[in-house]
Design brief:
alpha+beta, 369 residues, single chain, flat, 4-stranded antiparallel β-sheet
Length: 369
Amino acid sequence: MKKEICKFRALIIITLTNLLICSSIFAQSPEKISYQAVIRNSDNNLVTNQSIGMQISILQGAAEGSSVYTETITPLTNANGLVSIEIGTGTTSDDFSSIDWANGPYFIKTETDIEGGTNYTISGISQLLSVPYALHAKTAETFTGTLIETDPVFNAWDKSTGISISESQITDLGTYLESESDPVFNAWDKSTGVSITESQISDLGTYLVTEADPVFNAWDKSTGVSITESQISDLGTYLETEADPVFSAWDKSTGVSITESQISDLGTYLVTETQNLSDVIAVNNLANGQIKNLSDPTEVKDATTKSYVDTMIIKFGSTSRLLAGGFSASLLFEYGHSASELFESGTSVSELISIGVGVSELLDIGISV
């Protein structure tokens, strides 16, 4: 049970013994650092003969500095809880050899999961002292004495005269020309042109030597031109004489007389008006009732009904017809008519903006502002 709790506790007791073994005694310094640690759990008991997960980071500048190298490794502790690893040989995407040991100080950060995974619950940071800097001994910070230059001496050459390079000095020269075999071009007089024969043109095809089109004789536009029926292939049927009845002008001040027989869809019509109050009562009306003012009802129920009908007309009626009927653009916009419908029905951009339509909305529906 205590071992399970160990995985989640933030405060872990661990004893680390760092043995940084100097590698500078070899002729060539290996790109790795030996590291040993004794692993204990939260009960201060040794973690023995167990595979553990570790993440090693080299931090630059301070204990909270940035990591210049990170690797993971899964070593096995021995019977004494001791784990021995070589930093620089673990799984990583970094380059251990690229660490500039002269640009310190450096700190080593170890993170451990005693269950062998990557849930690192034990961590520690300690400064790397002088031992790892044996890796820096591979380079020289200063130089004294004389350096003998073994490169060949370069003699400056005169750029004005150029430099001679022979064929044997160029490995990928390939085939080249020593003499020009193109035909000599003789300048020709552009004012007289140049003569090209048919045999000199490979894709000439058929060409005309003489013009076979009929000669066009100018005609007098003031007299027009005569075109016969046989000259028009898509003439179809045409009229030679006008068969419509002659229209005689009539006096609009007196009107025109139209008889019933002249109207085919006249239906039933009234010659005289005979309706009276009795006739009105006979078609579901009340006698002695008040005739209501439909445009401005005097009864509350009538006013409510008219308001409902007017609202339906405004909401669902044609935008263009409502505008033509005297309804304002602001009222129609309030009742759900879109800016696009109002614009297409003649409402100006400035009026749309004045009733609350945003510039971005106008641009979205393709109206320039």
